[in-house]
User: What shape does this take?
Amino acid sequence: MSDTPVTVLGLGAMGTALACALLKAGFRTTVWNRTAAKAEALAGEGARHAATVAEAVEASPLVVVCLLDHDSVHDTLAPVAGALSGKAVTNLTSGKPRQARELAAWAADRGVDYLDGGIMAVPPMIATPAAFILYSGPRDVFETHRAALDAMARSEYLGEDVGLASLYDIALLSAMYGMFAGILHAHALIRSEDIKAADFAPMLGSWLNGMSGAATGVAARIDQGDYAQGVVSNLAMQEAGFHHLLETAEEQGVSPELLAPLAPLMTRRVADGHGHEDLSGLVELLRTRA
Ligand code: FVH
Assistant: This one.
C-alpha cells in the first residue's frame, strides 16, 4: 500500500475509473460523491466512503476533483476552503483556460496548491497505456504527487501556466471533432450508394492514419510562418478540388454542412494571393485576436 492517501471527489463514470485505478495501485483512497449510492461499489473494493466533502478533504493531502463542470467544482470546494488550506487540489474536471486561472487564483488566496488537468481518455482507458492526463500548475506540486497521478494514467506536465492543460485538452478535442466531422461526412457519402459502412471503414482508417503524418509538416510551416516551403499540393489546386467535394455531396443527397465552412476560407486565401502555398496557411485566417 502506498504511503500517500488520496481523496477523489466525484464518482461519475470518470471519477469512478480514477478511484479504481488509485485503489488498484495501492493508494489509500477516500471517495465522496453527491449521490452517495455511487460510492458503494468502490467501498466494496476498499475505498473509504466519506459522507461529506469536508470529511473527504480531511482524509488526504491530495484531493483529485472530477465533477461535471466548473460550476460544480466551485460549489463543491467553496464551503470547504478552510479544510483545503495546505493541501493540493488536482482538478481533472473539463474546463476552459480562463476557468483554470480563476480557480488557481481562488485556491492561492486560500493557501491551497492547485494543479489543473485534462484527461485524454474515456473511462475504460484509465490506467492503460493509451491514456494520458495533461497537467499544468506549480511543478513542485506535480512532482510531489506524481506517483498518484501516474497511477491514473501517463502524466504529461505542460508547465507552470495553469491554463495550459485545458488549452491543450481543448485543442486536442477540437482536432478530434474535426476528424469525426470528416468521418461522418465520408460515411454519409458511402451510404448514399447503399454500401455498408463496415466495408468502407478499413480503407478510411488506413487513409486517416497515412494523413495524420501531415501534422508535423503543418506545425513546421506554422512555426516558421512560411506556408510556401515544401508545398506538395498547392492551395489553388485544392480550392478548385474542394468545390467538387461539396458539389458531389449535393448530387449524392448528402448535406455538405460539416465541410462547407472550409470553402470560403480557401477561396479568401487564394484571392489574397496565397494560392501557391500550402493549405496550412488557412490558420492565418482563424486568428481573431492579435
Ligand atoms: N467520461 C468521459 O468520456 C470524459 C473523458 C474526458 C474527461 N471528461 C470529463 O470528466 C468530468 C467528469 O466526467 P464523468 O464522465 O465522470 O461525468 P458524469 O458521469 O456525468 O459524472 C458527473 C459527476 O459530477 C457530479 N456532479 C454534477 N453536478 C454536481 C454538483 N452541482 N455538485 C456536486 N457534484 C456534481 C455528479 O454527481 P452525481 O450526479 O452522481 O450526484 C457525478 O459525480 C467532466 O468534466 C468531463 O467533461 C470525461
